[in-house]
Design a protein that fits this description.
The complex is a heterodimer of chains A (168) and B (290). Chain A has 10 helices and no strands. Chain A has 168 residues and is mainly alpha-helical. The two termini of chain A are 24 Å apart. The model of chain A has no long low-confidence stretch (mean pLDDT 95). Classes of the chains: A mainly alpha (168), B alpha/beta (290). The interface between A and B is large, with 61 and 51 residues.
Chain lengths: 168, 290
């Protein structure tokens, strides 16, 4: 059931102002995205046509606090095939960027930010890793943590790493 | 031909066989790779979270390559895709470029748009060129049937890659594979995604997506799956045992990086191509090679 009194008619304009979300109102709900989506083929929770419909209707809270927006694999299948050039993979990123600003970041993405903040890379490079690399004649890898930390401080990512604005 | 070698986060710790084979093959073909310690994460993991942070991470890497006066050779398809995407945005959008340069100036950097980003496979195809590679083949792999996996980010979003490939009907990897003498065999849903993008969010879904391809490739009778992205490899090789358990099917399908295959054809000893680090042991392939 959709409660009309809770809809936010401005949500779609908020999305069109977000880089990547500009084309959302072009969608005519043909469903090509959902038909071609590899995630949708396996998991019914993720349905790009439905997400776009919900956003256009103004179901802001349901969309932004959902887990399903995080299920996009960024494979661009939908984006390549969309007859209306809605740029759906970019649109999903725009919606996720808004969700993060509203306090909804998926734990697995927070974990990736934590790894970047700790090591400047997604995966720690341990002494063991460098020994193994040396054994194969590969050059040592150093972690450049400071640059990433500086950037994260500047752009507010540090707050997300430290758990401010954490959901629940 | 000299490039700044962009290893990204995954390759140098999870895909040493890929890195090793890429370096050996590059050396054989006259590609010079320079290691640049200042390269960091390409920014891909942050794209969903905060666009500006993502763009700045990518832009900083681009400016590092510019300082070295080198085009980027990337081994990871996701790194290739996002670095190409940001490079294109910054080349086309002056307002964004000014904003990015304002931020970069605080760390003494500047983006000028002077270099190009290319995946290793694209470099082999476009810069080295098929005829030159063909000349160098010493041990044609004509007894093998391999299934190539393009993955998503080597091809898409196509708007950033220009005319290089057709995402619906790609051909460069097939052509590169045929050069080695091996047959590129067709299989169902060849252009499908590996599922890697949702591994962290919903493992079961990701593994089921990967299982579909393992099924299709196995049905084609291919001797191995051949790919060019460390994350696709994590799905098909590192997770193959897990997928076998979940789907109650034994695949035992070797997964090779294209430079490993090309290396064999160029006559490089298998020991130097890191096959010992492959998780699904390609013993049968190596023994048939003699």
């Amino acid at each position: 059931m959709i409660d009309v009194s809770k809809l936010d008619p401005n949500f779609k304009y908020e999305i069109t102002k977000e880089p990547g979300g500009e084309h959302i109102t072009r969608c005519f709900a043909c469903g090509t995205c959902s038909a071609t989506c590899p995630v949708r083929g396996i998991n019914e929770e993720y349905n790009p046509r439905r997400i776009i419909r919900m956003a256009l209707l103004g179901m802001k809270e349901e969309v932004l606090s959902s887990d399903f927006i995080w299920l996009c694999a960024s494979c661009y299948s939908c984006e390549e095939k969309c007859p209306q050039d809605v740029r759906i993979a970019h649109l999903m990123n725009a919606i996720k960027n808004i969700a993060v600003r509203e306090g909804h970041i998926h734990p697995s993405f927070r974990a990736q930010l934590e790894a970047l903040f700790a090591h400047g890379r997604l995966y720690e490079v341990t002494e063991f890793d460098n020994k193994k690399r040396a054994k194969w004649g590969l050059p040592e890898i150093r972690e450049n943590v400071e640059g990433t930390r500086k950037l994260f401080r500047k752009t507010g990512m540090e707050k997300l790493v430290k758990g401010e604005g954490r959901e629940e | 031909m000299k490039y700044g070698l962009f290893l990204g986060c995954t390759v140098p710790v999870r895909a040493l066989n890929y890195e090793l084979a890429a370096r050996k093959v590059g050396e054989k073909l006259g590609l010079e790779f320079q290691d640049i310690p200042e390269f960091g994460c390409c920014g891909f993991p942050v794209k969903s979270v905060d666009r500006m942070t993502f763009i700045l991470m990518a832009a900083e890497n681009l400016s590092v390559a510019e300082d070295a006066n080198l085009d980027i050779c990337s081994l990871c398809s996701a790194c290739s895709s996002v670095l190409t995407e940001v490079d294109r945005q910054l080349k086309e959008n002056q307002t964004l470029r000014n904003r990015v340069n304002e931020e970069l100036s605080r760390v003494g950097r500047k983006y000028q748009g002077r270099i190009q980003v290319k995946h290793l496979a694209r470099i082999l195809h476009e810069d080295v060129g098929l005829p030159r590679i063909k000349e160098m083949v010493k041990r044609p792999l004509s007894e093998f049937n391999f299934a190539v996996h393009y993955g998503c980010h080597y091809l898409k979003p196509s708007e950033v890659y220009g005319e290089f490939e057709e995402p619906e009907n790609p051909r460069t990897l097939d052509e590169l594979l045929r050069l080695t003498g091996a047959k590129s065999i067709p299989y169902e849903d060849k252009n499908e995604c590996c599922g890697g993008g949702v591994l962290g969010v919903d493992e079961a879904t990701a593994l089921k997506i990967a299982a579909l391809k393992l099924d299709h490739v196995k049905a084609s009778g291919a001797d191995a799956l051949v790919l060019i992205c460390p994350f696709c490899n994590i799905m098909y090789e590192a997770n193959q045992k897990k997928i076998e358990k979940l789907s109650e099917t034994e695949f035992n399908l070797p997964v090779l990086y294209y430079p490993q295959v090309l290396g064999l054809a160029l006559g490089i000893p298998p020991d130097e191509l890191g096959f010992r680090m492959n998780r699904v042991k390609p013993r049968e392939i190596l023994s048939r090679l003699g």
